[in-house]
Design brief:
Strand order of the largest sheet of chain A: 2-1-5-3-4
Mean pLDDT of chain B: 94
Distance between the termini of chain A: 45 Å
Oligomer: heterodimer
Helix content of chain A: 25-40%
Radius of gyration of chain A: 16 Å
Strand content of chain B: 15-25%
Strand order of the largest sheet of chain B: 3-5-1-12-9-10-11
Largest interface: A-B, 64 and 68 residues
Chain lengths: 172, 799
């Protein structure tokens, strides 16, 4: 996968589209490649050491901090970013639709500055796949890796409950 | 268990103040309360930026990108105090991919900036005064290349002893760090007869209190993109006040202010940390030097060195009272460590001193507030701004007083709480509601959470996630004791001490696709609080037009002032409203001309119809000759300076109050604290957007919780020991308890819509409430925040 001297080529399936990043310095994180090389800045860079969760993405359906994943580790794997949660345009960027979790975050007032929001909606989406009707404590435990400095988290809990209700109501 | 729902924002009965706001600022003829279309004032429409934010499509300052852009990096001093003896950028310039390396010699204008004193070098010349002070900057084609180039710059330092004790700045024993010495400002408050009050006091309580250095810890790091322009520079940046950034940048670049054009990029939180410049001048210098766009994004570690923090404080308090607990005097000495540069220290000290007696009626006040220079990290604005530190002191004292006179902590606050008509420590009379006793009573009367059985007599099902230590599984309830505590605070809203505090709003009404549309344009920084939503709401209410577009904030319109001091709803809200009224008057004048009637006969109805007796015209018809636009600069009522000897004066525009009750569980063996419930009552005058009000109270309370039990930048010998989110802890969703919230709406007749600033008060009172609850649980005399485990179990440990 060597493309030019000292750099690598990384191929990933991102939000359902096959994407290639060239000239990647091996020290670059998945977060950097998403943000700076592939035009997907939705995942945020707030601590770059896996403490804040703002860069949470699904790597083969497992939530990870993209800042802690070397880009090369994602070679050949599937990545879902915040841009892919609500349906996407052809290049993996956000489409017009909001997912129920995204919709609930907006409606519940769970978004203030919004910098933590991409990571939180990805983490909450993962939680609701595993626990469709989570308790407050399950929500708190599942989202404990996502720091928010604006909201005090109350409306985030409200949003997850609201999304759970929407999702369960829409299930056959 | 589900979270208790917050009490719906409740209209308190404004007995005695039910009349409309005074005609002086809000004439009912020109500004009737008109919720004429959905989404107006008093409702909670969704944020206009919410959809983009949940999609990851909102462009924050760190998301900026331009073709051919370079990455900036900053070389910072490793020493808190040193002379620079050699500086050689040659090795950095030799690295492939590096376009420019700049030092102080490359600053074309004034190599100094600062909010109140221009005392901080853009790039250090021959001396550094704090660890992290910028020395040189680099632009390169990859951020890693830029970082490595910065590291390759050769700097030789001769370290000096750092001045780290703020007392040494006051007593003059430390060498001066700046030409005028090390005291940035001393604010004395002298009110009443202290000696007589001391003689009369039947109960006296004293205490020494310490506040650690808190970080704003916004999530979006300092970042932005500078683009060279033909006649100047354009900057896209996350900031709190575009125009003061512009003026400082222009001075450093040696340009006219209009040559520096700033557009607000998406702001990932602020909380005071973006009042001072960080990468702004550096990015502009590099963009102009390379003639290419230059982007900076600080890492989290760099962010800890890239902005000012909350002043650490040492305080001595003495309160005297009657035997039944009525305050007779407050004497205090408050020392705030401003660190290496002044930033907003003068104003922070003024707040600590003028608000240092708290929300209490007390005739004799003797306070000395000091803000000083040291070689510790520079400190400046953070939510609560001087009031936070003092509140920990005086609220700790109120609990001591309650214990000394034998009344409960809520009662002592209700006995002494300020009311409308009372004077505060500066002699200023409270001329609008000040329902301190009611706020305390309301949180006191909320139901307490059930206390689980600690003795195994329950159902045996203990959820460790609800206990101190959580999933560390360190207790199942044994050794855990519950405590309850109260805190109440006072905060000035808007800028004080005679500052010309204004905002500018431009409002346009036009017809697009046959429908009327409003565009509102200000330079006010949306930092997450919801100001964009509020501007839309005001336009809808005043103009009756649903479709309101918020123009990006930039410097092509006049200053809006800072998004700080809880002031933007008041001041930019006031400006937007005034601009809407001007637009409405212009629309009615145009309609009057068309219809041949007097404008006073006409009114603008919801949906864009101008009607009057026997005649009417819709806006599509009225605006066929073009849009109507008005730009208005709006000021709140003037304030005065403080008397330099007595600290007396009508220095503040408005006061705001909040009260908290905290319930905590403490593991007495391990010193672990779980805040179980945190309730708040706050008077907001008018809940302009009830959901946003709740969000401010919840978020502000969380920051207060952080200061109470976990957040501290640990500094020793002038060096920061924990510049990361691994070592500087902020509350997670597991740390933040459910809240019950009571929102009172007693209108302030002086303020637009009767509103009262919301953002800061909940941060101020939550900290002392939590610490009081920990004292209640442990019986310990806790005089330092944040409270750490060793403060709780230190007495159990071997000496």
């Amino acid at each position: 996968m060597q493309s030019t001297e000292g750099t690598i080529r990384v191929r990933m399936r991102i939000n359902g589209s096959d994407r290639i990043a060239d000239d990647v310095w091996p020290g670059e994180s998945l977060l950097y490649v998403l943000r700076e090389r592939l035009g997907l800045p939705g995942s945020k860079n707030a601590c770059e050491q896996g403490e804040c969760g703002s860069c949470t993405v699904l790597l083969d359906d497992v939530p990870v901090c993209a800042c802690l994943v070397a880009a090369g580790q994602a070679e050949g794997r599937s990545v879902t970013t915040v841009e892919g949660l609500g349906g996407t345009a052809g290049d993996g960027t956000s489409g017009a639709e909001l997912s129920p979790v995204q919709q609930a975050f907006v409606a519940a007032g769970a978004v203030q500055c919004g910098f933590c929001t991409p990571g939180l909606v990805v983490a909450a989406t993962d939680l609701l796949r595993r626990h469709p009707q989570p308790s407050d404590l399950q929500i708190r435990e599942a989202l404990a890796g996502n720091l928010c400095r604006c909201t005090g988290y109350e409306k985030i809990i409200d949003a997850v409950h609201a999304a759970a209700a929407t999702l369960s109501g829409s299930r056959p | 268990m589900s979270a208790p729902a917050p009490v719906a924002p409740a209209l308190a009965s404004p007995v005695g103040f039910a009349a409309a706001p005074s005609a002086a600022t809000t004439s009912t003829a020109t500004a009737p309360e008109r919720t004429t279309v959905a989404g107006g004032v008093g409702e909670s429409p969704v944020r206009p930026d919410g959809t983009h934010k949940v999609q990851g499509a909102f462009a924050y300052s760190s998301d900026m990108w331009a073709d051919g852009m370079l990455w900036g990096s900053t070389l910072r001093s490793p020493h808190p105090h040193a002379l620079i003896t050699r500086l050689d950028v040659g090795p950095a310039l030799a690295i492939p991919g590096v376009s420019a390396v700049l030092t102080h010699a490359d600053v074309p204008g004034r190599n100094a900036y600062g909010l109140e004193h221009r005392d901080q070098p853009v790039l250090a010349v021959d001396r550094v005064r704090y660890q992290g002070e910028p020395v040189a900057i680099v632009a390169a084609d990859h951020p890693e290349t830029a970082r490595r180039a910065a590291a390759a710059i050769v700097v030789e330092y001769r370290p000096l002893d750092p001045v780290t004790d703020p007392e040494s700045a006051i007593d003059g024993s430390a060498p001066p760090l700046h030409p005028n010495g090390n005291v940035v400002r001393h604010v004395p408050i002298r009110r009443g007869d202290l000696a007589a009050a001391r003689a009369a006091a039947e109960v006296v309580v004293t205490g020494e209190y310490t506040v650690g250095m808190q970080d704003q810890a916004f999530l979006g790091p300092e970042s932005g993109l500078a683009i060279p322009a033909e006649d100047g520079v354009e900057l896209f940046v996350a900031t709190q006040w575009l125009h003061v950034d512009r003026d400082q940048i222009a001075e450093a670049l040696g340009m006219r202010p209009d040559q520096v054009r700033i557009t607000l990029a998406g702001v990932g939180g602020a909380f005071g940390a973006r009042e001072d410049l960080s990468m702004q001048i550096h990015a502009c210098l590099l963009a102009l030097a390379t003639n290419r766009p230059v982007k900076f994004v600080y890492s989290r570690e760099e962010s800890f060195f890239g902005h000012v923090h909350r002043h650490p404080a040492r305080m001595h308090y003495e309160h005297g009272a009657t035997a039944d607990g009525r305050l007779l005097y407050v004497q205090a000495r408050i020392v705030l460590d401003g660190g290496a540069y002044a930033s907003s220290t003068p104003a922070v000290v003024a707040n600590a001193a003028t608000l240092g007696a708290g929300p209490y009626r007390v005739d004799a006040v003797h306070i000395d507030g000091y803000g000083v220079y040291t070689n510790n990290p520079p400190c400046g604005a953070m939510r609560g701004f001087g009031a936070v530190q003092a509140t920990f002191g005086y609220e700790s004292q109120m609990d001591k007083l309650a214990a000394a006179v034998g009344v409960d902590p809520a009662r002592i606050r209700m006995i002494n709480g300020l009311s409308q008509g009372d004077a505060v420590a500066t002699g200023q009379i409270l001329d609008s509601p000040a329902p301190v006793a009611e706020l305390v009573q309301r949180v006191r009367d909320l139901p307490l959470p059930p206390e689980p059985a600690r003795d195994g007599s329950g159902d045996g099902q203990v959820d460790v996630r609800a206990l101190p230590g959580g999933v560390a599984n360190s207790t199942h309830g044994e050794g855990v004791r519950r405590g309850v505590g109260y805190g109440v605070g006072i905060k000035n809203i808007c800028f004080s001490e005679g500052f010309d505090d204004y905002s500018t709003a431009r409002v346009r009404v036009e017809v697009v696709g046959g429908e009327p549309m409003v565009t509102v344009h200000t330079a006010a920084a949306e930092v997450g609080q919801g100001l964009v939503t509020l501007q839309q709401q005001i336009c809808r209410t005043e103009l009756g037009i649903a479709d309101v577009h918020v123009h990006p904030a930039d410097t092509s319109v006049g200053s809006a002032g800072s998004s700080s001091a809880s002031r933007q709803s008041y001041v930019t809200g006031g400006a937007v409203r005034a601009a809407c009224i001007a637009v409405r008057d212009a629309l009615l004048a145009r309609a009057a001309e068309r219809l041949g009637v007097d404008a006073v006969e006409l009114r603008l109805d919801p949906g864009g119809l101008v009607t009057g007796p026997g005649a009417g015209i819709d806006l599509a018809g009225l605006l066929d000759t073009g849009f109507v636009e008005e730009t208005v600069t709006w000021r709140h009522r003037p304030t005065t300076t403080l008397d330099p000897e007595t600290g007396q004066g009508d220095a503040h525009v408005q006061f705001a109050f909040a009260a908290h009750r905290a319930v905590v569980d403490v593991d007495l063996e391990l010193g672990l604290v779980k805040v179980v419930q945190l309730d708040c009552a706050q008077d907001v005058g008018k809940a302009m957007n009830p959901d946003a009000v709740l969000g401010q109270i919840q978020g502000g309370s969380a920051q207060g919780l952080g200061l109470a039990v976990m957040e501290e930048i640990q500094v020793s010998d002038g060096l920061v020991r924990n510049p990361s989110f691994t070592d500087y802890l902020i509350p997670t969703i597991l740390d933040m308890p459910p809240m019950r919230i009571q929102v009172l709406e007693y209108p302030d007749p002086n303020a637009p819509y009767g509103l009262r600033g919301v953002g800061e008060p909940p941060t101020i009172s939550s900290t002392p409430a939590i610490v009081a609850a920990i004292r209640d649980a442990t019986g310990l005399d806790l005089s330092r925040i944040p409270v750490r485990p060793e403060h709780l179990i230190g007495h159990l440990l071997p000496a």
